[in-house]
Amino acid sequence: MNSISHDVAVSAISIKRGETLTFAGGVGPVWRVTQGVFKLESYEGENCALIQLAKPGDLVGVEVLCHKAYAYTVRAIVDAKVEVHLASHAHSDPSILVQAFLQQQRQTFDMYKLRTGSISTRLSYLMSLLKYRLDGLEESIQRTDLPILKDIAKIIDSTVETVCRDLNELIPARPQAKSKKKSIATWSHAAKDSLASAIPA
């Protein structure tokens, strides 16, 4: 029986914002995030704790390489894409252990930055994660591309009201175009005056 020991991009799928990729206790492949950001959460009864965020390039579900079930429930906080990492077990591709170790360190630092400092600083750091692309560059994002306010508040340990206020300063909402239509009453008075001036006395 042949084992695949390389990172092969297959079964690429799209995950909509709010949809679940894995459930804690489930089994499946190791996933590699190629677009968007996921939140890893742990449930104990009705309590839910945010553990980490996974951005493009990160692996999700590496515990299955050690013959374990998924440790966390993983949901997309924005529209995202993932692909399957085809490694049969940790010994088949030692480099995956190095990647997982370095990734763990960075994700721990990410959570530190998202939970300390001013709310505006935390929010700015979250925006940098959301802009991150697989090629290392940043992409522009609009208000419609962001996670829901409830998710943002939970990630940066704040309130929805505070997030909404600071977000308006960071990414102002597009102003609505002023209506060019005149009211019927205004048009009627203008037409009346125009007609009156046109009729000779």
Q: Short description, anyone?
A:
The chain has 201 residues and is α+β, with helices and mostly antiparallel strands. Helices cover 33% and strands 21% of the residues.
Descriptors for this entry?
201 residues, alpha+beta, Jelly Rolls, four-stranded antiparallel beta sheet
This entry's quaternary arrangement is single chain
How many helices in DSSP terms? 5
Low-confidence stretches: 1-9, 179-188
Largest sheet: 4 strands, antiparallel
N-to-C series of helices and strands: EEEEEEEEHHHHH
The CATH topology label is Jelly Rolls
Looking at this structure, what is the CATH superfamily?
Jelly Rolls
Radius of gyration: 25 Å
Tally of separate domains: 1
**CATH architecture title:** Sandwich
The pLDDT mean sits at 83
* Strand elements, count: 8
Summarize the amount of helix as a percent range.
25-40%
Please identify the structural class as seen in this structure: alpha+beta
Taking strands numbered 1, 2, ... along the chain, how are they ordered across the largest sheet? 1-8-3-6
What fraction of residues sit in β-strands? 15-25%
Distance between the termini: 104 Å
| Approximate shape | globular
Q: What's the level 1 CATH class?
A: Mainly Beta
Provide structural commentary:
With 201 residues, the protein is of the alpha+beta class. It has a single domain (10-170), classed as Jelly Rolls (Sandwich), CATH 2.60.120. 33% of the residues lie in helices and 21% in strands. The protein has five helices and eight strands; from the N terminus they run ββββββββααααα. A four-stranded antiparallel beta sheet has the order 1-8-3-6. A four-stranded antiparallel beta sheet has the order 2-7-4-5. The N and C termini lie far apart (104 Å).
